[in-house]
Amino acid sequence: xxxxxxxxxxxxxxxGSLTLSCVASGRTFSRNTMGWYxxxxxxxxxxxxxxxxxxxTNYADSVKGRFTISRDNAKNTVYLQMNSLKFxxxxxxxxxxxxxxxSWGQGTQVTVSS
Length: 114
Prior knowledge:
Layout: E1 3-7, E2 10-13, E3 18-25, E4 34-39, E5 46-51, E6 57-59, E7 67-72, E8 77-82, E9 91-97, E10 108-113
Parallel strand pairs: 2-10
Antiparallel strand pairs: 1-3, 3-8, 4-5, 4-9, 5-6, 7-8, 9-10
């Protein structure tokens, strides 16, 4: 079983940047398509970005051009570089396979002040 640990969140002003990391342990995910998701209290978790094993990426329209997903299979780590952050990006961010295959980690809180 894969365990996912997200980190890198924090409080940032609108227009700022953060880089999130997600480390997987237990089993390698090197052949899996991975993604980032986010959830605001009271709302459903939503998909943010995807990266395939070959490095192809896809993004939700709301983050396209501002967020960049990447991965380092040797480190079993997926990253999310977030630039030009907006208040509406405030959420708890999670990583998982696409489609979701693993138990959810604890997530990392991103708070953007306006």
